[in-house]
Design a protein that fits this description.
The complex is a heterodimer.
Chain A: E1 4-6, H1 35-39, H2 44-72, H3 83-102, H4 105-118, H5 127-149, H6 163-167, H7 172-199, H8 212-244, H9 257-291, H10 298-311, H11 327-355, H12 364-386, H13 389-395, H14 399-429, H15 435-461, H16 476-506, E2 537-539, H17 546-549
Antiparallel strand pairs in A: 1-2
Helix pairs in contact in A: 2-3, 2-4, 2-5, 2-16, 4-7, 4-14, 5-7, 7-8, 8-9, 8-10, 9-10, 9-11, 9-12, 9-14, 10-11, 11-12, 12-14, 12-15, 14-15, 15-16
Chain B: H1 13-47, H2 49-61, H3 74-99, H4 102-132, E1 135-136, E2 140-141, H5 153-189, H6 199-224
Antiparallel strand pairs in B: 1-2
Helix pairs in contact in B: 1-5, 1-6, 2-5, 3-4, 3-6, 4-5, 5-6
Classes of the chains: A mainly alpha, B mainly alpha.
Chain lengths: 550, 227
């Protein structure tokens, strides 16, 4: 029994060359050949693959900086780099990973590929804007890379003024402009997602029949649209201040550096939800598919995404407890920060309840999903610890904070991204990945991750500051453990690079629905035809109807 | 009669129109936030007692002794009227497209562009004047002129940073709008729009009105308030 009832085939020509054999079927990959057909494509699936290449490159670049940081921190003295060089390393790690991988990662790759298919549409509402967003992303990458090669940048990923506008003698301008340009790419993608979700849904696909990945992508897009213009403006002001030598954020000229921090975090705290919300959507899909149950509390999970999007805009001040913000503001920001934990916890409880009495199978995506739930919970709970001003003042700018946000960003977002990539890889390429290698990589990532970042909670709580190339001798044991973990983690991330490539040529064909999952994307071929569906599907059942599906 | 170009991924022209309109509204929301952040910075600084004197003095300087009008932001006021007029002709153009009145459509798009050009010309004259009397922060700012006036020249400079960022951003949007209107004017003359298909005209109209509304906030905040 299928979840989807097809409307009767219409008389339009079906793009099939010959028989339905795997070699002859026309799909979005073999429908056109050559570099031009890729660089000028407006097909959301091809653009998703373009994004996959670019984002993977940026991920490994950011990872390379992380490796250098961890090697430096093997010893208490700053011996591999001068402190100035070390400052550049952690800054470029932060900027590349945050702006060029975590923010666009899940939406631009998985979202771009899946959103129209999950909606039963042929494409996003504005295919050309979608392609433009990729080129703008590349332009942002090139500007930032130019800055990295041309002296690097040492302001920290937060560009705090007046250091970034007055004192820093590094390539702040190209990198700041690169990040600014990147914002336009995010905005175009978000705008496309919102309009597509509103206007392109297949017949019968009402809002509460949408897959939860769509809900979370929609919520994310709202945050992108309302937050990103503010960072654009802020970076424009930073660029003007640096270029014209005026003092917008410089107290000497009457400017206020705290205003910069408010504007920066007004975007950059919601940006944390831009990174985690799509990942949560992926987890909702994975948990249901591999426990073969409908999601527990569908509407709670859907509205939790919207609640996170709304409350996420009201908590930015918790980054500024030590910035001279008034104690009243800090108290209010602290309380709202506790409130935003509620919808996140609702999601965790709902995923856990979905697992209960489910028929759980341990395919690789599920390993990542289970990893996500545990690690995100640790990251979230330590976030509550940090939302309390007295504790935060004590551990501000220590490795406790570093460990906290890596549990959310790596343990959360990247685990979900990897899980989603494995889950939809058969759909994107038509080939299965090698399960044994993938499981090994998932376990390496999980153990490597914990070995890297758990010691950082301890060393941070003991007082080790972030952003220093040297530290006191007592902290060395924990730092060596962390570096050892990082090498395992790095190896775990390199493995998929190899076996995904291998699978393209040698792995077995996947077929339309290798997981036996529900969802419109599994009703079409793998890889999908150029316009996703031979006939526009009509949706009659809610998502995740595994009871009727089997 | 204009035909409706229906993109391959839409089912009906109505769906396409709806998507385009929603997209433009979403885009305008991002624009509100884009300008909003600069407005916020400006308002926060203007309300700051330490900066207030400098900001008020600088604000009074806008439009001073232009064409002999003392302390009256004459050019700003004139430009406000021009821009409101252009919004009116733009609205007429959208209406003309919806009812399929070709000549009125072409005429009103042309009028809107002429008014937009006048606005930008006056803005350029104002900038030129600011350059002459040394009000360009960072490049040609005459700090000495403010000695003995009781206000800190750096605060005046800070005001003009916001003045140029805000009016500059607005002018960039005007230029983009003019480009859009130019393309639509040519396509209107080719008879591409009519009762069945007027989406691009409506989108350009929304954009143009938005840019106009930004000026409606910008003008009093920068030019008019005196305390």
């Amino acid at each position: 029994m299928s979840t989807v009832a097809y409307s009767p085939p219409k008389a339009e020509p079906i793009p099939v060359a010959g028989d339905y054999g795997p070699e002859t079927r026309v799909d979005y990959i073999n429908c056109a050949w050559g570099v031009r057909s890729w660089l000028l494509t407006v097909d959301h699936k091809r653009i998703a693959l373009l994004y996959l290449f670019a984002i993977t490159a940026m991920f490994f670049l950011g990872g390379a900086f992380a490796v250098l940081i961890r090697i430096e921190l093997l010893t208490p003295k700053s011996d591999l780099f001068e402190p100035d060089t070390y400052n550049r390393m952690f800054t470029m790690h932060g900027i590349v990973m945050t702006f060029f991988f975590l923010i666009p990662g899940v939406p631009s790759v998985l979202g771009n590929f899946l959103l129209p298919i999950m909606l039963g549409a042929k494409d996003l509402a504005f295919p050309k804007l979608n392609l433009a967003s990729w080129y703008i992303y590349i332009l942002g990458c090139l500007l930032t890379l130019a800055g990295i090669i041309w002296g690097g940048i040492d302001t920290g990923w937060t560009f705090y003024t007046p250091y970034s506008t007055r004192s820093a003698h590094t390539s702040v301008m190209p990198v700041a402009v690169g990040v600014l340009v990147l914002g336009f790419s995010s905005i175009l993608t978000a705008l496309n997602f919102i309009v597509t979700t509103h206007t392109m849904r297949a017949p019968g696909l009402t809002w509460f029949k949408l897959p939860l990945f769509v809900w979370s992508s929609y919520a994310t897009s709202l945050v992108v649209m309302l937050g990103t213009p503010v960072i654009t403006t802020t970076l424009v002001l930073v660029a003007v201040e640096r270029f014209a030598g005026v003092g917008i954020f410089d107290p000497k000229a009457g400017g206020d550096p705290v205003l910069f921090q408010h504007l920066f975090w007004f975007y950059s705290h919601p940006a944390v939800y831009i990174m985690i919300l799509p990942a949560m959507g992926v987890i909702s899909e994975l948990v249901t598919a591999f426990s073969r149950k409908t999601i527990f509390g569908y509407q709670f999970v859907a509205f939790a995404s919207m609640a996170i999007a709304v409350f996420g805009f009201l908590v930015w001040g918790h980054h500024m407890f030590v910035s001279g913000q008034s104690p009243y503001a800090s108290t209010i920001f602290s309380l709202i920060s506790y409130v935003v934990a509620i919808p996140s916890a609702v999601k965790v409880f709902n995923w856990t309840a979905t697992l209960y009495k489910g028929s759980i199978s341990w395919a690789t995506p599920m390993l990542y999903a289970i990893g996500f739930i545990g690690l995100f919970t640790i990251g979230g709970l330590t976030g509550l610890v940090l939302a309390s001003p007295p504790v935060d003042v004590h551990v501000t700018d220590t490795y406790f904070v570093v460990a906290h946000f890596h549990y959310v960003m790596v343990g959360g977002t990247i685990m979900a991204y990897m899980g989603g990539l494995h889950y939809w890889w058969p759909k994107m390429t038509g080939r299965m990945y090698p399960e044994g290698w993938a499981k090994a990589a998932a376990l390496l990532v999980f153990f490597g991750f914990n070995l890297t970042f758990f010691p950082q909670f301890l060393v941070g709580y003991a007082g080790m500051n972030r952003r220093y190339a040297s530290y006191v001798d007592e902290f060395q044991v924990l730092n060596v453990l962390s570096t050892a973990g990082a090498s395992i983690l790095g190896f775990g991330f390199l493995l998929p690079f190899g076996y995904f490539g291998w699978s393209l040529r040698y792995a077995k064909a996947a077929g339309p629905n290798p997981w036996g999952a529900t969802g419109l994307e599994w009703t079409t071929e793998s890889p999908p035809p150029p316009h996703n569906f031979e006939v526009t599907p009509t949706v009659t059942l809610p998502p995740y109807e595994y009871a009727t599906h089997n | 009669m204009a035909t409706v170009p229906l993109a391959h991924h839409f089912r009906t022209p109505a769906q396409q129109h709806h998507a385009a309109l929603l997209g433009m509204w979403m885009f305008l929301i991002t624009e509100v936030l884009l300008f909003g952040a600069v407005f916020l910075g400006y308002v926060v600084y203007r309300a700051n007692p330490a900066l207030h004197g400098g900001f008020v003095a600088a604000s009074e300087h806008l439009g001073q002794s232009v064409f002999g009008f003392e302390h009256v932001p004459f050019l700003g006021a004139f430009n406000t009227v021009i821009l409101l007029g252009s919004s009116f002709t733009m609205a007429l153009a959208v209406r003309a497209a919806q009812v399929g009145n070709q000549s009125s459509l072409v005429r009103n798009l042309g009028l809107t562009m002429i008014l937009g050009t006048i606005f930008l010309g006056i803005k350029a004259y104002e900038y030129h004047h600011d350059w002459d009397i040394g009000l360009i922060p960072g490049f040609k700012f005459d700090k000495a002129a403010w000695a003995g006036t009781g206000v800190d020249a750096r605060h005046v400079e800070l005001f003009f940073v916001f003045y140029f960022v805000l009016t500059g951003l607005h002018a960039i949007h005007m230029f983009i709008g003019m480009g859009l209107l130019g393309v639509l004017w040519v396509r209107s003359r080719m008879g591409r729009f009519g009762r069945e298909y007027y989406t691009p005209i409506e989108l350009a109209g929304l954009y143009w009105h938005f840019v106009d509304v930004v000026w409606i906030f910008l003008y009093p905040l920068l030019y008019l308030i005196r305390h």
